[in-house]
Amino acid sequence: MEHAQIKERGKEFSWAQTIGLGVITLLVVTGVWTAIQIGPYLPDTVSRLAQALVTMSQTFIPGEKLTLYSDQTTLHSGDETVMSWVHKNKKGDGVYSLWYPCVDKLYLGVKTETGDKTLLCDMKSTLYSKDDLVTIIAVSENDQATAIPVALFYTRSDDSANPLSSSVTISIIGDTKEPPSEISPTLKPVEPAAATPTPPIVTAPVKKAPTAGTRTEKTYVVGTTTKPAQPYGKTDLAPRILEVGTIDKVTNAFTATTTLRASDRIAVRFEVENLGTANSGHWQFNAVLPTFPNYIFESDGQQPLAPGDKIEYTIGFDNVELDTDGRFVINVDPTSSIPEASESNNIATTTIRVSTR
Fold first, then answer.
1. Which of 144, 253, 275, 305 has the most C-beta neighbours closer than 10 Å?
2. Which Gene3D superfamilies does the record match to this protein (predicted)?
């Protein structure tokens, strides 16, 4: 009989422990910290565990973006179109340049104060514009419509290896319309350098009337010398640990420090940035927390990140295991549900040690 009572009491304690493990509360908030306390109905170890708290705050930081527009996307040979661009969150000085692929019997020109100049194909041609726009002239000697991408690059002086880019596709129809009479093919497509003499003006040939037939359109593959950003690229989400510290339990203020005590609410600041060339869509991340016992925080769906966008997070947690080196791990897209340019940069870690002294 006594053995049966001990066994039943063991079941009750085991049940209480299970309930205690299940009440670890996860709160996802921005600037609001809420504590949930469990009453004195559970054993001390379970009650302590139930008081553990996980909190998260986040700040969205938009990336630098360049968007190119064209007031016309279908032109006849000799027509003009105004291309303009919007550059948001510009981070430094740099140079704009225009690019288009080489296509037989097709070329683009740009109107300047000194006359109409030809843009060399498959090379970046530096643009000098005070109003973030340029007038483009399209000339085609083909007997059908030809669709080509036109890309705008912005190369920062302090980061020439990673230019921003944006592109539009225009369709040029070869017809009997008189092409512009003054287009020079010698505009230098290089980064700003010393002034060069004005090149001689070459008269563009007068094209023949096209032979009537079925209208077709073609899209040509971008050349290999300099490629603009692909319209359908890939996402590349990458986390980075920023700093470790504590969160004030009254003011919610974060303080960076490596001196962590048992009474502190430990916190880690980290960011997730889209290093790719495509919008991420909704995504998730997991965080392995060095609590006692270890806890895996699974985020809700996060807002889409465009290329260059990032979000800074602060995750705070109590009940850190004492006097041991605990690992804090961020794993972005843990289920690999997003097609990424690289899966090797989805994890970031740091070590946290809390002293009882």
1. 305
2. Immunoglobulins
